[in-house]
Amino acid sequence: MTTRPPTRKRAATGVIAGFVLRLARESVPLTQTRAAEVLGVDLATVQGWESGRRPLANMKAGAFLDLRRRLLALGADRSVLRMLDAAMDADRLVGAALDPPAADLHPLAGWVHTRATAHMIAWAVNGTRPPALHFLATPSRRGPVATTPTLPTAERAAFFEHLRTVVEASVDCGDRHALLRRQALYLASYDKSPAAVSWTAHALHARRDALMTHGWSPHWAEARSTATALARQGDPQPLLDFIDRAMADDDAEAANLNYWAYWLDAANGPQSDDQFMTDRALTGWDPVTLFRHMVRGLHQAPGYIDLYAHTLWALLTAHRWLPRAAPDIAAELIDRTALLLDEGRISSRARTELGTVHYVLRDHH
């Protein structure tokens, strides 16, 4: 599965951002023709943006800012416009697969991606709509129109093959390409074809030595990515073991909160490596924003419920004032924890920690 695909003409790498732009236009709502008129461009330009033939990433920075602000002024949905950055990041990753750069210059080697970007990738390769966009109604259209920013079959295959090649090439590079390896392996696990699932399971289990660490270590982030990817593959035990062993000290608990804040876009800005996780003072993110995102995402990740439960417990332990600062979110969590505790389908550890969370919230409510 590591044979590099033959040289091909480089395809457009703006499909994902172009599709999000189309959603923003339709949320106004505007036709392509009307959008071209009010934006002061020709119809072919709008069509090129939305199809990906003219990637938004190729626009000058000022022109792109103007486009986004004009759409906002016209009434485009703010939530959709916020997803443009993640969509452009996802397109950049697809572009790296179609035209591979040197390892040191790979976008996964010098930038820690977020959940929003991962969701955009999942949307393009598996058709899984990002939870942040579930609220959007599908407008009526004439004729056959794509309902997802799905990559063409050849590009999808090239994307996953590139990720697998990157993983295998970085195995012998030690810590030098640790960020590149762990992020490429995590995204490779989105490929659900039988052969790919087998390869991913083998590659993930080959990294299980990282799961043996107790508490914080330089390999903590890799262990977390490995455990969560295995959980998505249907093997929950490594994640349970990770919570038991790798959350064994204050440094590891801080790393977990710091990573969640970054992953859920509650952090102050992008990061080029994993060192931000070592901040024990927890100064790089807003606790209320993280609390909100954790609670709102609790029902969206049944495979990660144990990690959510532990993180919510740790967050409320570190910031006991959160229920008073965000009473609406606290009330929502009371209801959700009650349902989870009644269902009886969670581990004993998650039951204990969610029970503690529920008690603390009820005590403050």
Largest sheet: none
Number of helices: 18
Tell me the β content: under 5%
Query: End-to-end span in angstroms?
Result: 55 Å
Class computed from helices, strands and strand pairing: mainly alpha
Rg over alpha carbons: 21 Å
What is the quaternary state of this protein? single chain
The number of strands is: 0
Shape: globular
- Poorly predicted runs are 4-12
- H-E order: HHHHHHHHHHHHHHHHHH
Q: Please state the average pLDDT score.
A: 89
Share of helical residues: 55-70%
Short description:
Helix content is 59%, strand content 0%. The protein is built from 18 helices and no strands.
Describe what this molecule looks like in 3D.
The protein is mostly helical and 365 residues long. The chain contains 18 helices and no strands. The protein is 59% helix and 0% strand. Helix 1 (15-26) crosses helix 3 (43-51) and helix 1 (15-26) runs antiparallel to helix 6 (84-98). It is globular. The relative contact order is 0.07.
Quick tags:
365 residues; mainly alpha
